[in-house]
Amino acid sequence: MLLEESHKDVPKKAGGEGSMRIFLFHPKIPNYPHARFPGVVVFSEIYQVTGPVARFARQIAGHGYIVAAPSSYHEFTGPEPLAYDGPGTDEGNAYKIRKVGAALYSNHSLGEGKRDDSLERAGDIKGEIIMIHGKADNHVPPEGRDLIRNTLHEKGVCFSFYEIAWAQRKVTPPRSLVFQD
Questions:
Q1: H-helix or E-strand containing 163?
Q2: Residue 174: left if φ>0, alpha if ψ -120 to 50, beta else—which one?
Q3: pTM for this structure?
Q4: Virtual CA dihedral for 30, 35, 38, 43, nearest 10 degrees?
Q5: pLDDT tens, position by position, 80-105
Q6: CB atoms within 10 A of CB 86
Q7: Do 108 and 117 form a contact (C-beta atoms < 8 A)?
Protein backbone atom coordinates (compact mmCIF):
# COMPACT_ATOMS: atom_id res chain seq x y z
CA MET A 1 0.00 0.00 0.00
CA LEU A 2 1.28 3.46 -0.84
CA LEU A 3 1.47 5.82 2.11
CA GLU A 4 1.65 9.55 2.57
CA GLU A 5 3.22 11.38 5.47
CA SER A 6 2.61 14.94 6.56
CA HIS A 7 2.17 16.98 9.69
CA LYS A 8 -0.17 19.59 11.10
CA ASP A 9 0.85 22.26 13.58
CA VAL A 10 -2.17 22.70 15.83
CA PRO A 11 -2.36 25.94 17.85
CA LYS A 12 -2.38 25.35 21.59
CA LYS A 13 -5.40 26.60 23.51
CA ALA A 14 -3.95 26.26 26.99
CA GLY A 15 -0.70 27.97 27.82
CA GLY A 16 -0.95 30.61 25.13
CA GLU A 17 1.61 30.71 22.35
CA GLY A 18 2.95 27.93 20.21
CA SER A 19 1.60 24.82 18.63
CA MET A 20 1.71 21.08 18.85
CA ARG A 21 2.98 19.21 15.81
CA ILE A 22 1.01 16.10 14.93
CA PHE A 23 2.68 13.78 12.45
CA LEU A 24 0.22 12.03 10.12
CA PHE A 25 0.64 8.75 8.27
CA HIS A 26 -2.12 7.43 6.01
CA PRO A 27 -2.86 5.37 2.91
CA LYS A 28 -2.52 7.26 -0.37
CA ILE A 29 -6.10 7.18 -1.56
CA PRO A 30 -7.99 9.31 -4.10
CA ASN A 31 -10.31 11.81 -2.41
CA TYR A 32 -8.24 11.88 0.79
CA PRO A 33 -8.73 13.88 3.06
CA HIS A 34 -12.43 13.35 2.31
CA ALA A 35 -12.12 9.55 2.44
CA ARG A 36 -12.91 7.99 5.80
CA PHE A 37 -10.67 5.54 7.63
CA PRO A 38 -10.34 4.31 11.20
CA GLY A 39 -7.74 6.21 13.18
CA VAL A 40 -5.00 5.38 15.62
CA VAL A 41 -3.09 7.74 17.90
CA VAL A 42 0.45 6.64 18.70
CA PHE A 43 1.94 8.35 21.73
CA SER A 44 5.68 8.30 21.42
CA GLU A 45 8.44 7.37 23.79
CA ILE A 46 10.44 10.01 25.71
CA TYR A 47 12.43 10.86 22.57
CA GLN A 48 9.32 12.18 20.74
CA VAL A 49 8.47 10.91 17.22
CA THR A 50 11.66 9.09 16.30
CA GLY A 51 12.53 6.84 13.38
CA PRO A 52 11.27 3.68 15.16
CA VAL A 53 8.02 5.42 16.19
CA ALA A 54 7.48 6.65 12.61
CA ARG A 55 8.16 3.13 11.26
CA PHE A 56 5.60 1.71 13.70
CA ALA A 57 3.08 4.35 12.57
CA ARG A 58 3.77 3.45 8.92
CA GLN A 59 3.14 -0.23 9.66
CA ILE A 60 -0.24 0.60 11.15
CA ALA A 61 -1.08 2.97 8.27
CA GLY A 62 -0.17 0.19 5.85
CA HIS A 63 -3.17 -1.73 7.19
CA GLY A 64 -5.55 1.05 6.18
CA TYR A 65 -5.53 3.34 9.20
CA ILE A 66 -4.88 7.04 9.57
CA VAL A 67 -2.21 7.38 12.24
CA ALA A 68 -1.55 10.53 14.26
CA ALA A 69 1.62 10.81 16.33
CA PRO A 70 1.71 14.02 18.39
CA SER A 71 4.91 15.64 19.61
CA SER A 72 5.09 14.73 23.27
CA TYR A 73 6.85 17.80 24.59
CA HIS A 74 5.38 20.67 22.58
CA GLU A 75 5.24 22.74 25.77
CA PHE A 76 9.02 22.65 26.18
CA THR A 77 10.77 22.16 22.84
CA GLY A 78 10.27 21.81 19.10
CA PRO A 79 8.91 18.71 17.37
CA GLU A 80 12.32 17.28 16.48
CA PRO A 81 13.16 13.92 18.05
CA LEU A 82 15.61 13.83 20.91
CA ALA A 83 18.84 11.90 20.44
CA TYR A 84 19.11 8.29 21.55
CA ASP A 85 22.01 9.08 23.85
CA GLY A 86 22.68 10.09 27.45
CA PRO A 87 21.85 13.80 27.04
CA GLY A 88 18.73 12.99 24.96
CA THR A 89 17.57 10.51 27.57
CA ASP A 90 18.15 13.03 30.36
CA GLU A 91 16.27 15.72 28.41
CA GLY A 92 13.32 13.41 27.67
CA ASN A 93 13.12 12.27 31.29
CA ALA A 94 13.24 15.88 32.51
CA TYR A 95 10.38 16.86 30.16
CA LYS A 96 8.42 13.79 31.23
CA ILE A 97 8.71 14.80 34.88
CA ARG A 98 7.73 18.40 34.07
CA LYS A 99 4.58 17.15 32.34
CA VAL A 100 3.48 15.86 35.76
CA GLY A 101 2.60 12.32 34.76
CA ALA A 102 -0.11 10.86 32.63
CA ALA A 103 -3.09 13.15 32.05
CA LEU A 104 -5.60 10.33 32.29
CA TYR A 105 -5.15 9.85 36.00
CA SER A 106 -3.81 13.25 37.02
CA ASN A 107 -6.86 14.18 39.10
CA HIS A 108 -6.91 17.88 38.24
CA SER A 109 -3.16 18.38 38.43
CA LEU A 110 -2.43 19.38 34.84
CA GLY A 111 -3.16 22.31 32.59
CA GLU A 112 -3.86 25.95 33.22
CA GLY A 113 -5.58 26.30 36.57
CA LYS A 114 -4.90 22.59 37.15
CA ARG A 115 -8.40 21.70 35.96
CA ASP A 116 -7.80 18.89 33.49
CA ASP A 117 -10.84 16.65 33.28
CA SER A 118 -9.82 13.79 31.03
CA LEU A 119 -11.19 11.05 33.29
CA GLU A 120 -14.45 12.91 33.83
CA ARG A 121 -14.78 13.25 30.05
CA ALA A 122 -13.94 9.60 29.30
CA GLY A 123 -17.60 8.98 28.48
CA ASP A 124 -17.17 11.30 25.49
CA ILE A 125 -14.98 8.70 23.78
CA LYS A 126 -16.96 7.30 20.86
CA GLY A 127 -14.43 4.87 19.40
CA GLU A 128 -12.61 1.84 20.72
CA ILE A 129 -9.35 2.47 22.55
CA ILE A 130 -6.44 0.21 23.40
CA MET A 131 -4.14 1.02 26.29
CA ILE A 132 -0.82 -0.71 26.95
CA HIS A 133 0.90 -0.21 30.30
CA GLY A 134 3.99 -1.73 31.87
CA LYS A 135 3.28 -3.33 35.26
CA ALA A 136 6.63 -2.16 36.59
CA ASP A 137 6.29 1.35 35.09
CA ASN A 138 6.62 3.97 37.79
CA HIS A 139 4.98 6.65 35.61
CA VAL A 140 1.51 5.13 35.92
CA PRO A 141 1.40 3.32 39.28
CA PRO A 142 -1.00 0.44 39.95
CA GLU A 143 -3.60 2.69 41.59
CA GLY A 144 -3.51 5.00 38.53
CA ARG A 145 -4.01 2.06 36.16
CA ASP A 146 -6.89 0.80 38.33
CA LEU A 147 -8.48 4.25 38.31
CA ILE A 148 -8.21 4.49 34.52
CA ARG A 149 -9.59 0.97 33.94
CA ASN A 150 -12.46 1.37 36.43
CA THR A 151 -13.43 4.78 35.06
CA LEU A 152 -13.49 3.50 31.49
CA HIS A 153 -15.74 0.62 32.62
CA GLU A 154 -18.06 2.97 34.53
CA LYS A 155 -18.32 5.37 31.58
CA GLY A 156 -19.17 2.55 29.15
CA VAL A 157 -16.10 3.05 26.95
CA CYS A 158 -15.23 0.26 24.51
CA PHE A 159 -11.60 -0.51 25.36
CA SER A 160 -8.87 -3.10 25.72
CA PHE A 161 -6.41 -2.69 28.56
CA TYR A 162 -3.11 -4.55 28.54
CA GLU A 163 -0.54 -4.69 31.30
CA ILE A 164 2.75 -6.19 30.24
CA ALA A 165 5.34 -7.42 32.73
CA TRP A 166 7.99 -4.87 31.79
CA ALA A 167 8.61 -1.41 33.15
CA GLN A 168 8.06 0.29 29.82
CA ARG A 169 5.24 -0.20 27.35
CA LYS A 170 7.45 -0.15 24.26
CA VAL A 171 6.67 -1.11 20.74
CA THR A 172 10.05 -0.04 19.38
CA PRO A 173 12.82 -2.46 18.46
CA PRO A 174 15.52 -3.39 20.98
CA ARG A 175 18.10 -0.69 21.66
CA SER A 176 20.70 -2.43 19.48
CA LEU A 177 18.43 -1.98 16.47
CA VAL A 178 17.34 1.54 17.34
CA PHE A 179 20.89 2.86 17.06
CA GLN A 180 21.05 1.70 13.44
CA ASP A 181 18.68 4.52 12.44
A1: strand 159-164
A2: beta
A3: 0.68
A4: 70
A5: 999 989 999 899 888 876 765 444 44
A6: 8
A7: yes
